[in-house]
Every structure is written in structure tokens, then in C-alpha cells.
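dumping this here so i dont lose it
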């Protein structure tokens, strides 16, 4: 999958986290004066809080320098804005995949935990880990109150090695019917490409495949490698 806005980055995949050097953060904010006045940003990196990988967009170029497109969502109390940054690759001191669902148990509302526990088991049966993005992930990462009464559980589940996708999505759908929250998220291949689980559950002939570089429609069979 090639894109005119291919990322230039240190191997980040979609939803990966990037931790920046506090020494580099003031220069990043200086380059993004349209958002630099947000009160929470001044100490964001100093607190050890990450930014998140996103796709390159028109206007993200940094001239001759290589830039990495990152994002940062503010909590609902601060307007729930999604802030976009392009940072020099050398400003990134470490990266990590999104947090595991198991690690987020204590940060989740008690009513969510039985559903999350089931999803951890489902992912393990598929040969991988259940991971999180969205409101609960940011609550875990920062301690700030990102959750609202309308929050979903945003999940990333591994695509089964045998591609028994129908059985998997039927299981997720049944779990959602009994759950106190909506289950949003993706089934993710080993290469990081993901598709919303509902599209696969509905049996669509084509699905929207999202990667670090682009979002494209593909035949479902091609996504599944069938």
C-alpha cells in the first residue's frame, strides 16, 4: 500500500505511542503556535505522557527535514480537541505499542471489567494480546478523566492466524449484547493493518483497511489473505 503521504518515522505503527524528549518539546510547540497556548501542553512531555502515531496529511511536511506525524487528544473537559503535530524523528526517545487491556483493568469502570476480561481471553485464543486506544487508554496513560457516559471500549484484537473471522466476530457481537458499553475497534493483522470488526462481522465484500500510511478499500479476501 503506497501513499503520497508515506510516514517518515522510527517504525511506528498505527496507534503506537511516542515519548518525546522534554528538551525538544518547546521547539515542537514553537512550530505549532496554533495549539501551543493550550494550558495542558506545557508540561505534557515532562510528565512522561506520550503522543500517538497518526497518518501523514497534506501540509505536514517539514521542508527538507524528516518529520513524524503525531497526535494528542485533549480530555473532554478541555474540549476533546485532537491536536496534530509533526516532530523531528530525533525528538522521539522511545516508542511502545498501545497499552494492553489487561494493564487497564484498574483504570476501567468496574462494570466494564468482566467484558474486558473476556476480551483478554478471546485475544489469547487468537494468539495475541487485546490492546486499547481511545478514552480508556488515555485515562490509563495520563490519569486524566477521558471517560464520559458515551465512551466506547476501543479495542485492538489480533486477527486469528487461521482467519476464522466469522466465529470471532460472532463472539464479539454476542459479548457486546451483554456488555454495559459499546465495543468499538479493529481486528489487526501481524503487519499492523486493521479493519473495524463490524465490517467483517457484516460480511462486506470490501473493507476499509487502515495502516500507518493510509486508509484504502480492499476486497475482504485480500485483507484476510485468502
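and the seq i came up w/
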Amino acid at each position: 500500500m503506497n501513499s503520497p503521504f508515506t510516514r517518515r518515522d522510527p517504525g511506528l505503527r498505527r496507534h503506537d505511542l511516542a515519548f518525546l524528549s522534554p528538551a525538544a518539546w518547546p521547539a515542537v510547540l514553537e512550530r505549532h503556535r496554533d495549539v501551543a497556548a493550550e494550558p495542558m501542553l506545557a508540561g505534557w512531555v515532562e510528565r512522561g505522557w506520550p503522543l500517538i502515531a497518526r497518518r501523514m496529511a497534506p501540509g505536514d511536511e517539514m521542508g527538507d527535514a524528516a518529520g513524524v506525524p503525531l497526535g494528542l487528544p485533549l480530555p473532554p473537559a478541555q474540549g476533546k480537541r485532537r491536536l496534530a503535530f509533526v516532530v523531528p524523528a530525533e525528538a522521539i526517545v522511545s516508542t511502545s505499542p498501545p497499552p494492553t487491556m489487561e494493564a487497564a483493568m484498574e483504570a476501567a469502570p468496574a462494570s466494564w471489567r468482566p467484558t474486558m476480561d473476556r476480551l483478554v481471553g478471546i485475544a489469547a485464543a487468537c494468539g495475541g494480546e487485546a490492546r486499547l486506544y481511545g478514552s480508556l487508554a488515555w485515562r490509563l496513560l495520563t490519569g486524566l478523566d477521558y471517560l464520559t457516559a458515551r465512551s466506547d471500549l476501543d479495542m485492538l484484537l489480533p486477527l486469528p492466524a487461521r482467519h476464522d473471522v466469522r466465529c470471532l466476530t460472532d463472539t464479539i457481537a454476542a459479548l457486546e449484547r451483554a456488555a454495559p458499553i459499546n465495543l468499538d475497534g479493529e481486528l489487526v493483522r501481524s503487519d499492523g493493518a486493521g479493519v473495524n470488526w463490524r465490517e467483517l462481522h457484516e460480511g462486506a465484500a470490501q473493507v476499509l483497511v487502515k495502516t500507518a500510511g493510509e486508509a484504502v478499500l480492499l476486497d475482504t479476501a485480500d485483507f484476510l489473505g485468502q
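The longest strand covers residues 67-73.
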